[in-house]
């Protein structure tokens, strides 16, 4: 290529990397030869000479949860055109699998990592140093000092409880995810605090594995306890709640009011559509991608949470209690 352009190999390198002094005429000549020969930079070859590859890992807890598909797409869109490629990895919310996946990722010497820690994760600051620049999303780990992107868990769940109370519900339940997850703890705290503000209310909580199947069982238990309003932990849990309501021969919202957490397409197809705390997944992913780009460019980024608020979207799944209401 250098011979075809009539310049030195060093000049070609400067043009490709955008470094050093090269006249506009020489740059145009080199670029024309590059285009004519169909040259594409070899990222693998470059990585052998660099300390890190132009790769960002995205490790999620459960690829079957639509939240993570939306998150990955949002990160991908923010990094588009930056020169970084993404490697999506799943750990099925298993701390041992998480370790294995990160060990594999580390062998690629990535520039960064966006991670949703698994339930029971034992990751530490020392573990994460190997991945260059790290951002956690949704869940956070105690003792780990990295930038994090979260939503307003407590306040958002509190607004769901207040909505049910405003309609006259006093027997309210929340079907939660795994106890060890930071999101579960925050949402449970928000639920119990909101219920406690209303002395006539009783709040029930049930923990699940965060899946539809687990939620169906837990929802069946609280429906048997005569609750009239239920809040779901995530989209899959909300799906399980709605399924349990139908299986029990009850109606939503005539017999049971339901509010979900994190919107999903099926919620608007239900009749009536399901009210939901709309978690700002796309905004969270975009912010995580931007934080990573900032760090990779040398900007100073402080550790700690960045809160992107969710909002209550009112649809038709909440009404005055129709059975056992007080």
Automatic annotation (TrEMBL):
Domain HTH lacI-type: 1-50
Top-level taxon: Bacteria
Recorded GO MF terms: DNA binding
This protein's UniProt keywords: DNA-binding, Repressor, Transcription, Transcription regulation
InterPro entries linked: HTH_LacI (IPR000843), LacI/GalR-like_sensor (IPR046335), Lambda_DNA-bd_dom_sf (IPR010982), Peripla_BP_I (IPR028082)
Transmembrane segments annotated in the record for this chain: none
PANTHER family recorded: HTH-TYPE TRANSCRIPTIONAL REPRESSOR PURR-RELATED, LACI-RELATED TRANSCRIPTIONAL REPRESSOR
Protein name per UniProt: LacI family DNA-binding transcriptional regulator
Lineage: Bacteria, Bacillati, Actinomycetota, Actinomycetes, Streptosporangiales
């Amino acid at each position: 290529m250098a011979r075809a352009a009539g310049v030195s190999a060093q000049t070609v390198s400067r043009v490709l990397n955008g470094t050093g002094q090269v006249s506009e005429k020489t740059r145009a000549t080199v670029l024309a030869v590059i285009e004519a020969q169909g040259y594409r930079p070899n990222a693998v070859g470059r990585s052998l000479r660099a300390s890190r590859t132009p790769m960002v890992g995205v490790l999620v807890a459960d690829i079957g949860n639509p939240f993570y598909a939306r998150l990955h797409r949002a990160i991908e869109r923010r990094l588009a055109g930056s020169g970084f490629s993404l490697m999506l990895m799943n750990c099925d919310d298993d701390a041992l699998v998480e370790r294995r996946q990160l060990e594999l990722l580390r062998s690629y010497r990535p520039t960064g990592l966006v991670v949703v820690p698994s339930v029971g994760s034992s990751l530490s600051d020392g573990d994460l140093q190997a991945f260059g620049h790290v951002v956690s999303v949704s869940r956070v780990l105690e003792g780990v000092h990295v930038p994090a992107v979260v939503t307003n868990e407590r306040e958002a769940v509190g607004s769901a409880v207040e909505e049910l109370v405003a309609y006259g519900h006093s027997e309210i339940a929340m079907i939660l995810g795994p106890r060890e997850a930071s999101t579960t703890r925050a949402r449970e705290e928000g639920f119990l605090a909101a219920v406690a503000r209303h002395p006539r209310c009783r709040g029930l909580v049930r923990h699940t594995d965060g899946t539809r199947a687990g939620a169906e069982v837990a929802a069946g238990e609280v429906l048997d306890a005569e609750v009239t309003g239920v809040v779901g932990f995530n989209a899959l849990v909300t799906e399980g709640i709605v399924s349990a309501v139908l299986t029990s021969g009850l109606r939503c919202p005539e017999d049971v009011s339901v509010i979900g957490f994190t919107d999903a397409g099926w919620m608007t197809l239900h009749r009536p559509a399901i009210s939901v705390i709309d978690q700002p997944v796309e905004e969270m992913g975009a912010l995580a991608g931007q934080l990573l780009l900032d760090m990779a460019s040398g900007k100073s980024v402080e550790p700690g949470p960045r809160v992107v608020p969710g909002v209550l979207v009112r649809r038709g799944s909440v009404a005055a209690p129709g059975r056992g209401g007080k």
